Amino acid sequence: MKPQDENKEGIGGMINPRRYGIERVAYLLMRLSGLGLLAYFIGHIYETSSILKGQVGWNEFLDLTQTNEGHALLAIVIAMCVFHTVNGIRVMLGHGGVGVGKPSRPDYPYDPASQNMKHKIGIYSAIVLAAIAMMYGLAVMYGE
Amino acid sequence: MTQVPSIAEEKPTTSLSSPKTATLRIARFNPEKDSERKFMEFNIPYQRWTTVLEAILEVKKHFDHSVAVRYSCRQATCGSCGMIINGKPRLACFTKISELESDVVTVEPMNNFPIIRDLAVRFERLFESHHKIKPYLINDDSEISSNEKEFLQTPEEVEQYIQFSNCIKCGLCNSACPTMATDSSFVGPQALAQAYRYVADSRDKGKDSRLKIIDESHGIWRCHFAGSCSQVCPKGVDPAMGIQFLRGYLLGFRS
Asked: Across the interface, which of A8, A19, A95 has its CB nearest the CB of B112?
């Protein structure tokens, strides 16, 4: 079967956060923050390898993080790290069946128990904590 | 003796609402002839209770009988008329136009299913995945050979799986799943939820064999708990819950 005949939504459908509520937004943010942290990790290894060029090379590279762009990048890294951690704990607990409700006879209008308020609060908490951590990080970086 | 009026003489107790008109946009695509999907528009009068399926059948009856659509029971029981309605997977017979809160209703074939024509899609892969997880009770001590004539269950034991036995195999969950959007080898939320339905049944002894089937690279580990499957299920099955419980067995959270 040709790929176009499969009628798969593709990556565009996978990352579309607009149709299925905050859970799908968290799903997208989790992927973006995961990829972002992976990119930061690779960049971080490259950055620390500059110590092989001696103190001058190390200081030159470190100066890049002292610019406004560098501060913005690090603030985003802090936000990604906090969101990925907090939301990751929520997802891991869910994966073990914790906090996803109990099976019961469904009644109309069939609100899914697994999409309950505990998980929604967990997602909003991850977003709020990431924002607070980012602002705190910016305050520290700008020495206020 | 009181005179009972005939049905013809009875007057309605409530007044009928005046009909409104909606624009029904139907995706047309024949994979054997067409290179891309096109939309045809029809103006359809509707009442408060008119379903999307009724509107499509109105088009077939009065405007274009060549529109391909699969349907049967018209009461959300057969699972035949799943389609994308205004961007979300829904059953056409279970979706009233009035509840969409839009005068434009766009219907497309379900995502992640190969298209036969227009709104009709192939279900082979869904049924293959469903069969793969052994959707039946596995128990050597059959009811016929056993001294007992039936396997008794407490209400609590029934409660563990009854929700998941409501699945009508409509495919809406697979259509909404973000993993299915990119991985056609993924077993899918429908089959995984059904695996849990039998694993959770106290009469079943096939837990280990089912867990072995789903414990593979395109199996349960590709579910990331986005929960979209549960949000679109028209029968309240909540596949996301079943999948997480099932994963709990593999992770050692449940026994």
From this structure: A8
